[in-house]
């Protein structure tokens, strides 16, 4: 990477309003902001597992744009509105990360920015030699 910092924008109007971007890459680290389950047309699937899957698809896109991939993820943070949705969200998370197994924190929160959202997810990645990973 030629520049010391790379900002990855999703084009979301919230980025300009709040002054943030979807992801930031500095050297070999990528930090992906809290990612909501909105679809390109602004709708939100009501199913918690589908919402988590959508969040992770957006995260994967940001990682790829920053030169990383899902296998580089070392930590995820999952914010749930309802603890009863944990199993559904865990299934989606496992689909993306079962072979990677990043550190994870999942917390139940009082609410998210949009009442339709059941989950929001963040991720941190370190781009490196995958041969160094030990299970």
How would you describe this protein?
It is a single chain. By secondary structure, the chain is an alpha+beta fold. The protein contains three helices and six strands. The chain has helices at about 15-20, 50-65, 85-95; strands at about 5-10, 25, 30-35, 75-80, 105-110, 120-125. The chain has a six-stranded mixed beta sheet with strand order 1-2-3-6-4-5, covered by helices on one side. Strand 2 and strand 3 (about 30-35) form a beta hairpin. The two termini are about 30 Å apart.
**Backbone structural class:** alpha+beta
Q: Tell the overall outline.
A: globular
Helix content: 25-40%
Q: What is the helix/strand order?
A: EHEEHEHEE
- Between the first and last Cα atoms, what is the distance in angstroms? 29 Å
Give the mean pLDDT: 92
Rg measurement, Å:
15 Å
Q: What is the number of helical segments per DSSP (H or I, 4+ residues)? A: 3
What is the topology?
Elements: E1 5-8, H1 13-18, E2 23-26, E3 29-35, H2 48-65, E4 73-80, H3 86-97, E5 103-108, E6 119-126
Parallel strand pairs: 4-5
Antiparallel strand pairs: 1-2, 2-3, 3-6, 4-6
Helix pairs in contact: 2-3
What can be said about this structure in brief?
With 135 residues, the protein is of the alpha+beta class. 27% of the residues lie in helices and 27% in strands. It has a six-stranded mixed β-sheet with strand order 1-2-3-6-4-5, with helices on one face.
Task: Describe the structure using short key phrases.
135 residues; alpha+beta; 6-stranded mixed beta sheet
């Amino acid at each position: 990477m030629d520049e010391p910092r790379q900002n990855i924008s999703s084009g979301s109007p919230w980025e300009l309003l709040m002054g943030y971007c979807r992801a930031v890459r500095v050297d070999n680290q990528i930090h992906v902001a809290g990612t909501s389950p909105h679809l390109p047309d602004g709708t939100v699937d009501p199913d918690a597992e589908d919402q988590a899957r959508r969040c992770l698809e957006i995260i994967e896109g940001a990682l790829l744009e920053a030169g990383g991939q899902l296998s580089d993820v070392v930590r995820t943070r999952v914010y749930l509105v309802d603890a009863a949705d944990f199993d559904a969200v865990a299934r989606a998370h496992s689909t993306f990360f079962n072979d990677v197994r990043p550190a994870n924190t999942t917390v139940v929160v009082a609410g998210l920015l949009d009442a339709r959202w059941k989950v929001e997810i963040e991720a941190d990645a370190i781009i490196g030699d995958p041969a160094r990973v030990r299970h």
